[in-house]
Amino acid sequence: MGEVCPERRSIVIGTRGWIKTEKEIREFAKQNPDILNKGAYRNLMNQLNKVAKHSKGISANKSLPQYYNHVDRFCRFLADNYNLKNLANIQNKHLVAYVVERQSEGKSASTVKNDLAAIRYFHDQFPKTRYQLGDNKTLSEKYPEFSLEKRSFGGVDRRPTEMEYQGLLNIARNSKNPETADIIFLAREQGLRIHEVVRLGHSDAEKAIREDFLTVKGKGGLIRSIPLREQSRTVLQDAMKRVGRGHKLFVGDDEKAHQVIQRVQDFVRNNRQKVLDPANTRPQGVEITMHSFRHAYAKEQYDRFIQYGMSEKQARFEVSKLIGHSREDVTRIYLAE
Question: Mean pLDDT over residues 75-82, rounded?
């Protein structure tokens, strides 16, 4: 089931009826497949509710419900990507990563600025916080990937070089979790989000091998089919041999999807400096993340479509469909245009 539109939630004037009850939070998490770390999300939302009940300084019937919904979405991001336990412990790095995430979804600068305003507002409502959050000017000076200017919105090269990509694969293959290499490989060669890779099951692999297309469900329930590369076929076949029917390819019976995601993200974070290529074209300070591989895939596919004789606009549109979007202008973010 898709996400409940915030505007459709009933608002009880004077009683802050826009605050989700514990039951609503639990049901929303249960029904929303985009939330993988449901326990962490519920925990963060319960913390948000405690301060939302007594927050002051802005309209409780207009601005506060909007801010609440912005931070609700932020809590999902923190749960799945950081397994954060305490909402009062958010840092600048969380804000920057969230901005990059929202930009990659094609959100406008005004929407992202509203996200940040809401996060900072509720951060100020906590009686005790661990870190001070920088303003947009400070973040833009400290983090090269942070940009809210319309003319350069999202236009940051994040791609790893081939040497860096192969280096991470080699380290992963020789680690205690060699399946990490397969997850990185499918993110790079099929343009998948890490969540999409981790969700793949035995039946998904069987279908992809049979049809030569890998079908995945992306954010918001958007389903897309990506041409299956020959090496990806081999990776899926090998993964199928390790698990039985009805099982996930990369999530063990004693694991949760968000634990695997966290482990892979930690692997990239802990090893990216070991494979750093001095010839990379990323701005100083922009590090390799799992999302970087989607950027590399998008650029590769764009160049391929241009070689086929497509116009730049049509090529961007075709790439947007491959990476799970529906607008060609979103591709500009991946191409760092």
Answer: 93
Q: End-to-end distance of the chain based on CA atoms, in angstroms?
A: 34
Q: Tell me how far apart the alpha carbons of residues 130 and 84 are, in angstroms, rounded to a whole number.
A: 13
pLDDT value, residue 151: 41
User: What is the CB neighbour count within 10 angstroms for residue 121?
Assistant: 19
The pLDDT value recorded for residue 4 is 46
**Four-residue CA torsion sign, 86, 92, 93, 96:** positive
Least confident interval from 50-59, 210-219, 287-296: 50-59
Predicted pLDDT of residue 34: 84
How far does Cα 24 stand from its chain's mean position?
24
Q: What is the pLDDT of residues 87-130, one digit of tens each?
A: 999 999 999 999 988 887 778 889 999 999 999 999 999 999 99
Residue type, 298: A
β-strand partners of 227? 213
pLDDT band for position 15 (cuts 50, 70, 90): low
Q: How far apart are alpha carbons 211 and 252 in whole angstroms?
A: 26
Q: For residue 109, how many other CB atoms are within 10 A of its CB? A: 18
Per residue, what are the HEC states of the chain?
CCCCCHHHCCCCCCCCCCCCCHHHHHHHHHHCCCCCCHHHHHHHHHHHHHHHCCCCCCCCCCHHHHHHHHHHHHHHHHHHHHCCCCHHHCCHHHHHHHHHHHHHCCCCHHHHHHHHHHHHHHHHHCCCCCCCCCCHHHHHHHCCCCCCCHHHCCCCCCCCCHHHHHHHHHHHHCCCCCHHHHHHHHHHHHCCCHHHHHCCEHHHHHHHHHHCEEEEECHHHCEEEEECCHHHHHHHHHHHHHCCCCCECCCCCCCCHHHHHHHHHHHHHHHHHHHCCCCCCCCCCCCCCHHHHHHHHHHHHHHHHHHCCCCHHHHHHHHHHHCCCCCHHHHHHHHCC
Q: Please answer whether residues 330 and 320 qualify as being in contact, where contact means their C-beta atoms are separated by less than 8 angstroms.
A: yes
